Amino acid sequence: MAFCCLHRHHLGRMYSLSSKLIFGNTLNQSKSPKYFNICKNVISSCTRNRENTRKSAYARTQFHTSPQRYLNPMILLFAKQLVKVGAIISGRTVRKWWQHLPKDRRGHFKDWLFASRYKIALGTSGLGSIIFLYYMSHLQEAPITHRKRFIAFTPDQFLKISEFEANTYHEQYEKQKLPTSDLRHLHTTAIVNHIIQCNQDIEDFRHKQWTVTVIQDDDVTNAFVLPNGSIFVFTGLVNLCESPDQLATVLGHELAHVILNHGAELVGFAMFVDIFVIIMMAAIWTLMPSDGIAAVTQWFYHKVMDIIVHMPYSRQLEKEADEVGLQFSAKACFDIRECSAFWTLMDIEMDKKGQNVPEWLSTHPSNEKRAEYIDDLMNTALKMRESCNCARLPNTDPRTRHKTKKLEVKNEKTSNYAVI
Fold first, then answer.
1. Average pLDDT over residues 128-149
2. Angle 284-289-293 (CA atoms, 0-180°, nearest 5)?
3. Which of 51, 165, 242, 254 is catalytic?
């Protein structure tokens, strides 16, 4: 049975958060007081394990060893770019050298290559073996899904990257941050706290220092969580969500990215792929007859790599976060059917704005496919929610409402085309 925070109590029977947040005050916000009152009914007493968790965390901090020292990951990322530039320069230098080489010397060089073919093959095999051993030694198992994946950086190294990124975002959005007393910030924080407290069986939920920042920008329908626990939510997303359940499922998805360490995985994947990219870049700038053709070929090669390697891999991670995030929300007793309803709503809104793009050109699954995939996971997730003794869901399925609305929009669009 999955860890749950309810202990056979109905949601809303007790309302206790460390910040003692109160929703439902009559404030002039983008959502009605009724909307925020739902939050009050959703948040339950998940603080039973909080004091024990705090004590155990305190006890762990009393033991110290000499800190491990790692190479700053920013240096490695910068070095990777230098190596790419070096590959271009090296390839171009070899091409120029070959073009100016007399024909008789070209023949001698070809003969030397043929005579040295076994040594070259041996050296190439040795290099390939080193790369393979490096890859195998950095394979880690993902929590929850237990999928094997390549992670290049240690947790401490990647934490430095995410802290730098978090500071950058805080500086960028400094003037747009909502005050912590704002109702939208309060209810977002309450939902995040609830998900975290209901998933205390997962180590990272207990050990990370989570912070919530709500950014005033109604044109941005987005939220993201950095590996250091910094959560950024834009008011455009808060305004679009029709219920706390929808916002909770989106936040559950973003939290899943962090728990599954997808950020480090993507960086590691890109670094490993870049080994072959660098080799190809050197080959392109060596074999192409001119700089212009080499530059165009390199651009085309990068685009192809994005479409057939990077984007499909990113979409796979998004699907994994959808599955795990749905579990987080189910254990927190939210109406997880709203997750599918939200992506159907997003599909409608994006279609209205003409912003839907083909899935194969995106790092994310299409909104329509996403709703369908979540529906496929729904029965399992609902059983998990039921195992947590959550309150019974309403008979009205929110997915039906949005699917009907989508059909109406589609018919209207078809009618407009027919008129044109």
1. 94
2. 65
3. 254
